[in-house]
């Protein structure tokens, strides 16, 4: 009988320890993933001037695109300096917003379309915006895992005893354009190739 | 539905069972073969010498096949390391997806073959390998490639790779050896030298034993691998990329490609994202009966696509 009781207690202790370790390690991983976003943004700011100078000749007539590229870089650099997660999140979409505009400019101009430098520029921009997107996703997934475990039974007992607070992860405003869907957006997109 | 920790635990347990079985199999076979040879050469039967020899051989072979399973698989498949110059797309896609999946970057390998296919191998997150054919990177778009590589990364994440590669090396190689012995004994029959006849008889017996073992082994591979694994990796791929369309059209492209992958064989076929033997392609699927389906290591492509379409 006594052994059964000791056995149950041991199992419980083991479970508490492993749950506690889950919370601690995912907190660390979340911190690391925020740093990863900064890291990827830093890579972006280093990359853009390079791309700018190599594509300058080709994009002479597309001043608008060029200015966007420059302002995106400044925004990202500012965000990294501030070290604020939400500023970083905002800046990180700068490049992905720019991509469609660049693609349109290239589509309108057959000469640019055939050019390897421009295609490489687009590839690089897509690659770097993907990297930032995936680093944001990791943060989102990790915080979701952590927060779900924090509130679901039975791990919530451990969370409340050891006071693991809810983590915000990427902050997005809960009201505004992006949470409503207009009827236009409900239609499936048409693509002409 | 099991969660990822349960999947990992199940994979670890199964891997351990296979390692132990392999150790015992080699131990027993080496013991009996050396005993038989000993008697043939006029030594006394029994004794600890034979057991010691068997222990050493099985210990070394188990160690090698556990720690070098990825290298053996890559060697059998004739893969080379991916380079930044030639395989830029593959490398950047894999790097990006690793950031999203929160995994260390695996080693990336290429098989020079125009048949599109891919597999993952290795023993844990830090020692993982993803290998694709040049056909895959040439024929697929970036989005499709992302779907395929995310599928392989899920195999890494779930530790499927450990189980799948030791199954290839430990169980699969026995099946391959069987084929090999059988072929030798077949060719060896024409010679009528006395000495060679005796050796030929031994090889013939070994061949028959392996020929009997081979289908049992094939069945074992299926039991260990379980086709649900592929569905789970498909789901994991969608979890990483958030878009099933890429993987759907990639699966369609890979399965409708008529070229067979020469680098694949019985031991490694179950590793690939789509069966390299082209038995379950989209076109043939309707005519192939259910019985044939039972013996496939891969679930039918149409079923996988249907499951993926439900997610979008």
Automatic annotation (TrEMBL), chain B:
First and last residue of the signal peptide: none
Superkingdom of the source species: Bacteria
Cofactor: Zn(2+)
Transmembrane segments: 16-41, 47-68, 163-182, 202-221
Biological processes per GO annotation: proteolysis
Localization of this protein: Cell membrane
GO cellular component: plasma membrane
Key words of the record: Cell membrane, Hydrolase, Membrane, Metal-binding, Metalloprotease, Protease, Transmembrane, Transmembrane helix, Zinc
Active site: 152
Short name of one Pfam family: Peptidase_M48
HAMAP family assigned to the protein according to its UniProt record, in alphabetical order: Pept_M48_protease_HtpX (MF_00188)
Family, per entry: Belongs to the peptidase M48B family.
Name recorded for this polypeptide: Protease HtpX homolog
Species this chain originates from: Candidatus Woesebacteria bacterium GW2011_GWC2_31_9
Organism classification: Bacteria, Candidatus Woeseibacteriota
